[in-house]
Every structure is written in C-alpha cells, then in structure tokens.
Amino acid sequence: MATNSSPEGSNNRFAQFKLVLLGESAVGKSSIVHRFVKNTFDDMRESTIGAAFLTQSVKLPEKSATVKFEIWDTAGQERYKSLAPMYYRNANAALCVYDITSRSSFNRAQEWIKELKKQAPENITICLVGNKTDMQEEREVNQEEVDEYITQLQNEGTTLISGECSAKSGDGVLEIFTNIANALPVEEVINNSPRNRSLGSRRSAGVDLGRAPSQNQANTGCC
C-alpha cells in the first residue's frame, strides 16, 4: 500500500511504498537490503527466518520527492514459500533476486515472477536483480540470456526492471532501488494524498511519515 505525508512546514514531498524481496535461499537478499539500509555487509549473515522488516528512503531530486520503502525481506527456504503471499499481497514493488553464479537461482527467480504475475497486484513494479557481481569468474548467468528473458516478458506485455549488483562491494545497490523508486507512481500518490485534498491534514490512510513509528513498525523481525 502506498501512502503519502509531508512534515508540516517542510517543502519535501514524501511517498511511501511497500517493497518485498523474493528469491532462493543464499542469493543475498538480506545482504542487498542491509547494504542499502545500513551500508554494511556480513559474510556470515544467517538465513532469514520468516521475514524481516526494514525501512529506507531514496531521494529523487528531479521529482523534488523522497520515496520511503517499507521493505519485507522474505526467507528463501522452501518451507517458508507458503508465507510469501502474505508479504507480496499488497506490495507496490518486488525484487526477484538471483545469484549470477547459480543458474538454478535464476530459474527460481523466473518462477517468482510467474507467481507475481498471477497473484500479486496488477500494477506491481517488478525488478529482476542479479547479485554477486564481485564473483565474475564464477558467473553462470550471462547478460545475454537475461536480456532475452526480459524481451520475452515485454512481448507478453510485462514491464520489468533489471539490474546487477554486489551486496559485498555495494556496486549497483543504490542504483537498483533508485530505479525502482523512479518507476513507481510517486506523483500520483503525492497528488492523491489526503494532505493535498484537504489542506492541513497530516494523516494518510496508511502510515503517517510525520509520526514516530509504533513498536510493531520498529521491529525488524516478523512471524
């Protein structure tokens, strides 16, 4: 669910969107999120159990706006697969992550995209992300076949953002989230906000960005 709020007395414009990460276990979903949110990397990071919740914002100077992401990092283990619809059901964007050194993870990412096309909101923004570009010598998924897959989806009427990154080095991570932010309906959310429909209103139908997060929102774990 997308929401909007702007602190009183501020010229900044804010739009908030829910984003979910999907992908096979060990592709680096959590590492990508932590690089984006905290600019850290841990080689020994443990697998996510259920899902983890974090937030981070991206500034879009060309739109004079800031996009705040509510990020749900889902577990990749097969036993948690049935929980995924809980997280992408009302998502505005989804990152389907694969490991460029693992062909099976690329195939699994394509399965997630098929599932999103069938069950996720019709206007969800989907981004296919290849992680671990710092391991080029072990690459199994080349850019040509990724481009071919994207072209195939486009011919079927599906728009897809794609990119590669290294959570370890940080290369490409911010660019991916910025590209997603630019693809989201930022202006529509801001223009349709209760604040713009009724001057003086600071509370939207969802989360008020001018309000301190509740205890539940502040937690980084779920389920």
UniProtKB/TrEMBL annotation:
Alphabetical keyword list: Nucleotide-binding
Keyword Nucleotide-binding listed? The answer is yes
Q: Where is this region: Disordered?
A: 193-223
Q: Which GO terms describe its molecular function?
A: GTP binding; GTPase activity
**CDD domains attached to this UniProt entry:** Rab5_related (cd01860)
Here the segments flagged for biased composition (Polar residues) are: 213-223
What Pfam family is a match, any one? Answer: Ras
UniProt xrefs under PROSITE patterns: ARF (PS51417), RAB (PS51419), RAS (PS51421), RHO (PS51420)
**NCBIfam families attached here?**
small_GTP
List the protein's name: Piso0_005889 protein
Which gene is transcribed and translated to give this protein?
A: Piso0_005889
